[in-house]
C-alpha cells in the first residue's frame, strides 16, 4: 500500500509485483486497487491462493477476493450493507477467511467462508438493546466546495425529535458504522436519533 505518490502511482493504491523481479528492478507492477473520491483501502490479507481486500466505499465496507495473475476481483456476496467489516483472520496455508462484521444495530458477528464458499455466521456478540423498529439510512450532504459527504442516520423511520450528532474524518481516520450498546439502550431505544 502506497502512503505517498510513487512513480506515477497514486497514494493509497495497492500494488503487486513478483518479489524477486522487484528487487532486481525488472518487475511488472500491477495496480490491484486505486482509491477514488468515494473509496479507500481499509485492509488486506492473504490466504494461500487469494488476496482479500476490504475497502471503504462512502464509509461502508466492501469486501473483494482477488486472484493473483489476472487479479480478477469478486465481491463477497451476502454481507450486510452499512456495516464495518474487518478481516479477523486469513489462513495462509488454506483459503479460509474470518470476517468480523458489526453495524449500528448489529453487534459484532464472526463470519467464516472462503473464495469458494459462502460466508456463514459462526459466533455473535450479545446485543444490549432491542433494535426492532430501528433503521439505518445513508445520506449525503454537499459542502460549500461541492464535495458530497456521506453520513448515516440511525433511528425510527420518520422520527422527528432530538438527534445526537457525531463525526470525525481527519488524518486518514474515518468513523465507520459500529455497534454501541450504551448509545442503543439509552438513546436509540428511547426514541432518539443518531447521525454520524
Description:
- 6% of the residues lie in helices and 44% in strands.
- The chain has 196 residues and is mainly beta.
- The chain has a four-stranded antiparallel beta sheet with strand order 3-4-5-6, with no helix packed on it. Strands 7-8-9-10 form a four-stranded antiparallel beta sheet, with no helix packed on it. A four-stranded mixed beta sheet has the order 11-12-16-13, with no helix packed on it.
- A hairpin with a 2-residue loop joins strand 4 (51-57) and strand 5 (60-67).
- The longest helix is centred in the N-terminal third of the chain and has 6 residues, at 19-24.
- The mean pLDDT is 92.
Mean pLDDT comes to 92
Largest sheet descriptor:
4 strands, antiparallel
Query: What distance separates the N and C termini?
Result: 28 Å
The assigned structural class equals mainly beta
Low-confidence stretches: none
Order of adjacent strands in the largest pleated sheet: 3-4-5-6
Number of strands: 16
Strand content: 35-45%
Sketch the topology as an H/E string, one letter per element.
EHEEEEEEEEEEEEEEHE
Q: What Rg is obtained from the alpha carbons, in whole angstroms?
A: 19 Å
Q: Please work out how many helical segments DSSP would assign.
A: 2
Portion of residues within helices: under 10%
Q: Choose one word for the global shape.
A: flat
Amino acid at each position: 500500500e502506497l502512503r505517498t505518490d510513487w512513480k506515477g502511482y497514486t497514494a493509497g493504491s495497492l500494488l503487486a509485483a513478483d518479489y524477486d523481479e522487484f528487487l532486481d528492478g525488472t518487475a511488472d507492477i500491477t495496480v490491484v486497487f486505486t482509491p477514488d473520491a468515494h473509496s479507500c483501502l481499509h485492509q488486506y490479507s492473504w490466504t494461500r491462493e487469494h488476496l482479500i481486500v476490504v475497502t471503504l466505499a462512502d464509509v461502508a465496507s466492501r469486501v473483494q477476493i482477488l486472484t493473483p495473475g489476472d487479479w480478477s476481483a469478486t465481491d463477497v456476496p451476502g454481507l450486510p450493507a452499512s456495516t464495518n467489516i474487518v478481516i479477523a483472520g486469513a489462513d495462509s496455508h488454506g483459503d479460509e477467511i474470518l470476517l468480523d462484521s458489526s453495524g449500528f444495530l448489529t453487534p459484532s458477528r464472526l463470519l467464516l467462508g472462503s473464495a469458494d464458499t459462502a460466508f456463514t455466521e459462526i459466533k455473535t456478540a450479545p446485543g444490549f438493546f432491542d433494535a426492532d423498529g430501528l433503521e439505518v439510512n445513508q445520506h449525503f450532504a454537499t459542502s460549500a466546495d461541492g464535495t458530497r459527504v456521506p453520513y448515516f442516520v440511525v433511528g425510527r423511520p420518520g422520527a422527528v425529535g432530538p438527534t445526537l450528532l457525531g463525526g470525525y474524518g481527519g488524518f486518514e481516520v474515518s468513523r465507520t458504522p459500529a455497534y454501541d450498546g450504551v448509545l442503543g439502550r439509552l438513546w436509540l431505544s428511547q426514541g432518539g436519533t443518531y447521525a454520524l
